[in-house]
Amino acid sequence: MESIFHEKQEGSLCAQHCLNNLLQGEYFSPVELSSIAHQLDEEERMRMAEGGVTSEDYRTFLQQPSGNMDDSGFFSIQVISNALKVWGLELILFNSPEYQRLRVDPINERSFICNYKEHWFTVRKLGKQWFNLNSLLTGPELISDTYLALFLAQLQQEGYSIFVVKGDLPDCEADQLLQMIRVQQMHRPKLIGEELAQLKEQSVLKADLERVLDANDGSGMLEEDEEDLQRALALSRQDIAMEDEEADLRRAIQLSMQGSSRNISQDTPQTSSTNLTSEELRKRREAYFEKQQQQKIDPPGQLSYPCERPTTSSEGLRNDQGDGMSEEDMLQAAVTMSLETVKNNLKAEGKK
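User: That's the sequence. What structure does it adopt?
Assistant: Structure tokens below.
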């Protein structure tokens, strides 16, 4: 579709774009259309003067702004119609009784000019295909023959006035080329407003990204974020592991106390195991293991020498690790001793 001439919207010059897209070239400029508008204004003034230059209607007419153009670049249907007369072209209202009586199929026409409020655009046949040449679009929009009538009906329903362009349009390259080939359109052109909004959004996002990257030394920001995330996950897993380990430790202590309660009760008064503190548990373990070791060293009939007794497991751990042993380490040592006790008891019962 590169051969199709398509002027895009600038300001409110849609009448100029409509005419040039219809004629397929830069045929009219704002200056030329303004000249036509001034000529129409002068003709209207002369007609009003015929009723008397001193009349109230004439003075009111002079005070009113031009109805054929304004400072924004808008031009009236009279300006467009007069501009087309230069090329021997005439505009007929599409839904007028005179045209409807002709019962002409829209696909048999050559072009239409559509107007809604202050916007004008062209629908034209180039070669054997129809195109919407609206200047508000980013490019020409292909319209199938079957959709053309529906498209015009939809425009009328939305309030558009549609004019049929009668007469021979000037020759153009696009029309000659499209007589030989047919084009296909994969993607509908967007409205210029949509494209500008999308480009603006992309520009804002790009600027924000560049500011963030500059403030964080580019890709270093992503690496730092990744490291922070990994550290947070590691700490979370560590906390969970510590909680599980502490829970296992408490369960092991409780089970070991239940398993060795019979042996402890033979040497010490009964005390509820659930009320024992870690220090009491340690002392009882020391007393028990001290007696066990003493019996192994001093068989019946021999004297014992308490001053030369071997060091218990608990004392050995304290001597190796120093007086700064934490409560967690002490609990771990107690678990180890308790497991040893349960193991010995099970062996003894097995022999019996």
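The chain is about 55% helix and 10% strand.
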